[in-house]
Amino acid sequence: MNALFAFVAGLVFGIGLIVSGMANPAKVIGFLDLAGTWDPSLAFVMGGAIALGALAFAYAKRRSMSLLDLPMQLPTARHIDRRLIGGSALFGIGWGLAGICPGPALVLLGSGAVKGAVFFAAMIGGMALFELAEHLKRARPNDVACDYSNLTDH
């Protein structure tokens, strides 16, 4: 039953992306082009999404179980660090260059658009590189300060 609700939620989200124009890279780039012929229409889409999301999170914070009777799992991190800023910057650069972000990439991939397939492949590649870097970071021994006091000059 949960898979059915997940499918319906994804379908509604995808339809919303198509109807709002968020799955159209040219429209997104027009929105991001503040110095050119700026298209402010997506600002209303984002504003509506933020308002609805704020209401949903306010409601969810008061609950311990979801409407599907599953444990509520809300984000708990509240700090801003280098990883958050770097990831946000990388996301913004990619969004600005391609006019595509992960949700619309799936819509474009499903529609057979070559741009969507290329973006999706690059997104999966980036995720794989991140996981590899995290794995290598965990596998390397902790950096230990070296004691050079017993070395002599030759």
User: How is the quaternary structure best described?
Assistant: single chain
Percentage of β-strand residues: under 5%
Overall pLDDT, averaged? 87
Helix content: 55-70%
As residue ranges, the low-confidence spans are: none
Shape: globular
The main pleated sheet reads as:
none
Could you give the count of β-strands?
0
Euclidean distance between termini CA atoms = 74 Å
Give the key terms.
154 residues; mainly alpha; 6 helices
Model description:
The chain has 154 residues and is mainly alpha-helical. The protein has one domain. Helix content is 66%, strand content 0%. It has helices at residues 2-20, 25-32, 41-61, 82-98, 102-111, 114-139. The longest helix has 26 residues, at 114-139. The protein starts with a helix and ends in a 15-residue tail after the last helix. 8% of the residues are buried.
Architecture blueprint of SSEs:
Blueprint: H1 2-20, H2 25-32, H3 41-61, H4 82-98, H5 102-111, H6 114-139
Helix pairs in contact: 1-5, 2-4, 5-6
Short synopsis of the structure:
With 154 residues, this protein is mainly α.
